[in-house]
Write a structure and sequence with these properties.
mainly alpha, MetI-like fold, 84% helix
Length: 267
């Protein structure tokens, strides 16, 4: 009995350690960072202490500048991502189900996908200016390629046994596509959407920094704080963006589980 109780206690301790380890490491890094800055006399312009960053983070939340700029960036991300998601999934499905469409579109994907999307910014500024359209277009273009490639690959990798079984049961081509192929490909499609969201966040912020004629968005906030040497604000903005990205990613995973609960099991 005593041995069994000790074994259970040891398992609980290991489980607790497993759960808390990431947070303990983060706390240790923050404490070490604070002490390193305070005791080595590092100037805030080069590396501010975490306590100073949190102070500025609270100030930016209280004066409304952080929520406002974050919401503007969020709307630009979502607008472009929705366009990319709808068009990317549609093109990927057409490519997967039609060899002719795949043959026509594939050379364009192969040529344009490796192209660094940030290199398109000067051209988009010439064509569209530096307003909202330019930021939404760069968001959509960036997310489109991961979505279409993942969708095409997922459609092509659907188990042929499922398709043959549906044919044996009397399903026609449309029923097979809608009720067998697309549901079976959803895990791959959702993976592409997650990847597309990640790169879209990066490119929208970069677009706001490089071609931002407007005075809004997280890219504008970061570049403006850097220009006036407010390093604490830069770090606070980066922390806000990191948390923002984590929230979006987890919400997206939750939506994916609702739409395709079997996708989580396949991953």
């Amino acid at each position: 009995m005593a041995t069994g109780a000790k074994t259970q206690a040891a398992r609980r301790a290991r489980s607790l350690t497993y759960l808390l380890a990431p947070y303990l490491v983060i706390a240790a890094v923050i404490v070490a960072w604070e002490f390193a800055v305070r005791f080595n006399g590092i100037q805030p312009i080069f590396l501010p202490a975490p306590s100073s960053i949190l102070k500025y983070l609270w100030i930016m939340i209280a004066d409304g500048s952080l929520p406002y700029n974050l919401s503007v960036t969020f709307m630009r991300i979502i607008a472009g991502f929705v366009v990319a998601g709808v068009t990317g999934i549609a093109v990927g499905i057409l490519m997967g189900m039609s060899p002719l469409v795949a043959r026509i579109v594939d050379p364009w994907i192969a040529a344009l996908y490796p192209l660094p999307k940030i290199s398109l910014i000067p051209l988009l500024i010439i064509w569209l200016g530096t307003g909202e359209t330019y930021k939404i277009v760069i968001s959509a273009v960036t997310a489109f390629f991961p979505v279409v490639i993942s969708t095409f690959s997922a459609i092509r990798q659907v188990d042929r046994g499922l398709i043959n079984a549906a044919k044996d049961l009397g399903a026609n081509a449309r029923q097979i596509q809608v009720k067998v192929v697309i549901p079976a490909a959803l895990p791959g499609i959702t993976s592409g959407l997650q990847l597309g969201m990640g790169v879209t966040i990066i490119m929208v912020v970069a677009a706001e920094m490089i071609g931002g004629s407007s005075d809004s968005g997280m890219g504008f906030l970061l570049i403006h704080a850097g220009q006036v040497m407010e390093t604490e604000k830069v770090f606070a903005g980066l922390i806000a963006l990191a948390l923002f990205g984590a929230v979006i990613t987890n919400v997206q995973k939750w939506i994916d589980r609702l739409v395709a609960p079997w996708a989580e099991r396949e991953h």
